[in-house]
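Severity: low
Component: inverse-folding endpoint
Summary: output formatting inconsistent between runs
Steps to reproduce: submit the following structure tokens with default settings.
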């Protein structure tokens, strides 16, 4: 049997007592790190099945007072009748048969929204979402549970109010969208809306001074989307607006 000398033995027991003192702190640190890892894993799992595919919308509008709009033809040309939205991991491409934002392409890795009012134009405009006006202003919202059923999905309704106006979004949490993709997308309050819904919308009602503009999903197709879908059209002049 090995026998410690007195000095070595005293030093050993002193170190043992010190290790016992630090053991609770080490345990706490391990618990904290384990908890953080579990939280990150849960967040990853929650959005690992983000919606990937295509949603088709019908576009309609009506006057606020229910009467006929004097500029109905102009409004129809401006907003269009149909819109197709394609998305994958926060990137999206939206094509609308209108003469305003007829094409939109957004890639979260670039932080730019590319758009055309006329898809036949040789020019594509873009805005840097990081440079968009980000002044702080009052933003209010409320959520109405089980407000509507759209294409078999029971939807909650997000009612938002701000200086931009009032807008309602209907959504179902099964059609997930990770808000991290839009954390810097200040335009149209997309960062706030996505943070609240954490999903794509199936219906939207936008209230303007004289009319209400609505998007209603008519078809949902979950499918694998190629990254090339979000490439810009070739041969176009790109201008920052």
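Observed output (run 2 of 3):
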């Amino acid at each position: 049997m090995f026998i410690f000398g007195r000095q070595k033995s005293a030093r050993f027991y002193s170190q043992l007592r010190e290790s016992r003192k630090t053991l609770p702190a080490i345990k706490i640190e391990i618990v904290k790190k384990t908890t953080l890892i579990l939280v990150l894993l849960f967040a990853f799992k929650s959005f690992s099945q983000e919606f990937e595919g295509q949603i088709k919308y019908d576009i309609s509008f009506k006057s606020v007072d229910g009467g006929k709009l004097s500029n109905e033809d102009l409004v129809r040309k401006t907003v269009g009748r149909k819109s197709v939205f394609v998305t994958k991991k926060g990137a999206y491409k939206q094509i609308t048969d209108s003469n305003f934002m007829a094409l939109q392409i957004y890639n979260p890795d670039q932080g730019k929204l590319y758009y055309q009012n006329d898809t036949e134009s040789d020019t594509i405009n873009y805005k840097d979402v990081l440079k968009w006006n980000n002044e702080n202003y009052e933003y209010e919202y409320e959520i109405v549970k089980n407000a509507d059923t759209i294409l078999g999905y029971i939807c909650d309704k997000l009612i938002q109010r701000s200086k931009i106006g009032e807008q309602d979004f209907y959504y179902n949490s099964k059609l997930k969208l990770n808000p991290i993709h839009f954390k810097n997308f200040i335009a149209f309050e997309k960062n706030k809306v996505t943070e609240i819904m954490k999903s794509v919308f199936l219906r939207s009602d936008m209230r303007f001074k004289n009319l209400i503009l609505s998007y209603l999903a008519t078809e949902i197709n979950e499918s694998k989307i190629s990254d090339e879908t979000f490439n810009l059209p070739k041969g176009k002049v790109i201008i920052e607006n």
